Structure formats: C-alpha cells, structure tokens
C-alpha cells in the first residue's frame, strides 16, 4: 500500500519530514525507487543477496538488477579440502568483467588446479611453499588461456584472410570459447587457510581481503591482506611505467592504456598480446567486445610493447595464533562492497585500509546478529530503510544495472 509524505508539527513549531513505506522517490542520479519498511525490506534484501551459512562461514552474492544480460559476473567458492589428513579451507572471489566467459572458466579450473598443486606439494618430501604454489598456479591458468587461442594460428597470420580467421574463431564451439576467454577478464582473490590457522591470500585486481583480530587489550585490529591493483595505486603505476619506459600513455587517467582500471587480471589479452591479435582475431569475433569498436581503436594505438596487464599475483601470509587474538574473522569482498562502503560511509573508495577498518568495526559490534555477510552488506547500503531502499529498489527504464556486483565471504577464525 502506498502512503503520502506526512508533515508532523511539534510543539516547538519544528517540522519533521517522515518518509513512509511504499513512497516513490528519486535518488541523486534521477532514478526512481520505492521505500520499503520492515519486514519487507529485509525479505527483499535477502531475496537478492542469497545469504548462505555453512559452518563458520557466511556469504552473500548480490546484483539487484533482474535483467538477464546484467546478471552478476561475480563468482565465489567456499570449500574444505582434506589433504594428507589435514583440513585446508579454500575461499575465493572472482569478479568477472566484459562478459562471463573468463570468470566461468576460472572458477571451473583454478580451484581444481590449486587443489592438485597443494596435494602434490604436501605429498612430497620438499618444504611447502604455499605462496609459490598460488603464484605459479594462477599464472599458469592465465597463460593457458592465451596459449589455447595462439594455438589456433600456429603460423601466425601470413597468407590468411579475415574470412579464414572468422571461419576458425566463430565455430560456436571450442574455438569460439578459447577466443572469448581471452577477450573477457576476471580478477582473482584466493585464500588458503591451513590447519594451524596460517592464512595465505593471493590477489589479482581490486577485490579485498581483511583480517579482523581482537587484541588482548580488547581493541580490534585491522589487517588488509590483499593488494589493490589499479591505475590509481602508486606502486602499480611505478611498476607499469618502469616496464614501459618512454610510453607516457601506458597509463592515462588512472587506466591502463587509458582503457581499463585494473592493472592485473586473468584474461584481457587485448592488453597482453601484440595489437595484431586484436585487429585480426578479437575484432573479428562474434560476439566481440562488449564496448564499442571506437574504444578499442582508441587504446589500440598505445599498445606498443605488451603485456601491459599482469597475471602475477601478490601473496601475503599471516599466522593468526601469533597475533594472540581472542577473536578473529576474515572478510573477502568484491569491489562492489568497496563502492557501497565509499558511498555509505563517506570515505575514499580507493583506500583499502579505510574500508577494511570500517568493515571490522561493523562486524565486531556486540549487538550484531544473523548472517554476518548480510549484516555487513545492509550496513554498507546505509542500514536505514530509506537508504537501503534507495540502493535496492531502483527502477531503470533501460534495464541497466545501477550498482556493481557485490560478493562477501565472512569466516570466523577464532
């Protein structure tokens, strides 16, 4: 049932505006949304966020836009691996972009490859180097994606016409899949939690992993265990410019070649291979890129000494018992949560430490109840009914999504 806005007159002549459930409003972007009240609001949020709880782990996975073509490109995996009589917890968030092809491939092959590599290492007599296992396995998955496409043209493009290229790559089968996996991309955030609460975190891109630990003094400490691989990160800017000396436009407006914000990912081979593969293969693919040919041509002329995007992940390790914490939990999140947090909490979207500290503060509240990932998501959306409704209940004429895909994994460690 809809209600009109009510004006309530108080004895001191002050007027307070109350927004009633069912009212239609417009947000700052001009989109109309419907204000929901409880319990409808929580029910609608849960319907979109798909909260799940398994043991000590809570998850949410949300994209409120219901247009099929705009379905979430996030993927996540939570699994317990029993290897050599030890239990290893594997958790991962993959944030796809440009399409679903690469992220679907990564989520299907990377966990299996890591499991095999870890099992082989644990069964050998050599010392265990989990960091190297993560680095090598992730890089190998990316390299194989590129090699599968390169193998379609073992002799390069000599004496091969565009029609021949199209016939090879647009078979609606294995060849098409190999090409599309190169053209799309995915970030990677992988966590391995060992049997003695050693944690290794591997990251490519801009998803975030945060450890919250309650110290002996009773205060909560925040540790960011992921890297922030984007064109606004000073370390990444320095790395890319050092790899491409004299190329002023290898980074332009905080984007690689002026086009893509992240600086490390699986896939995205238009930024890793010579430009001839874009002009001869990717632009002849059907379907092609999900952005215009003009945008491709804009960055293509800057592609002088590839690769510009890296698939070498950063790995951080921490031994939780050494912290002496009485409580500890881990948060993995796609960058959709970072965007929501920036808007709701009024902070710099690009500062992982600020966002991580806020998430730990929210999840360490004594009155927190229910699914922790859902609790954090709702708080980051503004917590109050009108604020959450303004994010969740948007109506768009063209059916386009209005917020980024958002995934959260919360795990209680102690």
From TrEMBL:
UniProt superkingdom: Eukaryota
Secretion signal span: none
Classification via InterPro entries: PP2C, PPM-type-like_dom_sf, PPM-type_phosphatase-like_dom
PPM-type phosphatase domain sequence ranges: 53-413
Example of a GO MF term: protein serine/threonine phosphatase activity
Pfam families: PP2C
UniProt-listed PANTHER family: GM14286P (PTHR13832:SF792), PROTEIN PHOSPHATASE 2C (PTHR13832)
Protein name: Serine/threonine protein phosphatase 2C
């Amino acid at each position: 049932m809809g209600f009109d806005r009510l004006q309530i007159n108080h004895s001191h002549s002050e007027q307070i505006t109350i927004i009633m459930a069912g009212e239609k409003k417009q947000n700052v972007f001009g989109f109309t949304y419907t204000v929901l009240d409880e319990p409808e609001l929580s029910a609608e949020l849960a319907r979109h966020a798909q909260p799940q709880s398994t043991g000590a782990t809570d998850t949410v996975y949300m994209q409120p836009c219901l247009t099929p073509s705009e379905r979430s490109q996030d993927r996540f995996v939570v699994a317990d691996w029993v290897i050599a009589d030890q239990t290893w917890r594997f958790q991962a968030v993959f944030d796809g972009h440009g399409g679903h092809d690469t992220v679907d491939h990564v989520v299907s092959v990377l966990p299996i490859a890591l499991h095999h590599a870890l099992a082989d290492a644990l069964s050998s007599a050599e010392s265990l180097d989990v960091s190297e296992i993560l680095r090598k396995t992730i890089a190998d998955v990316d390299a194989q994606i590129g090699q599968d496409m390169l193998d379609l043209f073992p002799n390069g493009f000599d004496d091969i016409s565009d029609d021949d290229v199209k016939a090879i790559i647009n078979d609606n089968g294995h060849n098409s899949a190999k090409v599309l996996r190169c053209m799309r991309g995915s970030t990677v955030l992988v966590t391995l939690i060992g049997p003695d609460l050693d944690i290794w975190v591997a990251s490519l891109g801009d998803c975030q992993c945060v450890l919250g630990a309650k110290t002996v003094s009773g205060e909560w400490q925040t540790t960011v265990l992921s890297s922030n691989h984007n064109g606004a990160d000073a370390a990444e800017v320095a790395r890319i410019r050092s790899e491409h000396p004299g190329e002023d436009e290898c980074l332009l407006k905080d984007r690689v070649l002026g086009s893509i914000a992240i600086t490390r990912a699986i896939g995205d081979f238009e930024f890793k291979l010579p430009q001839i593969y874009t002009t001869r293969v990717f632009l002849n693919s059907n379907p092609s890129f999900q952005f215009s040919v003009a945008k491709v041509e804009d960055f293509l002329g800057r592609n002088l000494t590839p690769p510009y995007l890296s698939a070498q992940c950063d790995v951080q390790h921490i031994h939780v018992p050494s912290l002496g914490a009485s409580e500890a939990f881990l948060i993995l999140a796609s960058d959709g949560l970072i965007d929501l947090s920036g808007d709701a909490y009024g902070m710099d979207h690009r500062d992982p430490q600020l966002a991580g500290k806020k998430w730990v503060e929210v999840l360490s509240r004594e009155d927190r109840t229910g699914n922790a990932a859902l609790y954090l998501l709702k708080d980051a959306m503004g917590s109050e009914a009108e604020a959450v409704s303004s994010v969740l209940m948007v109506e768009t004429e063209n059916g386009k999504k209005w917020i980024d895909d958002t995934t959260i994994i919360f795990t209680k460690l102690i």
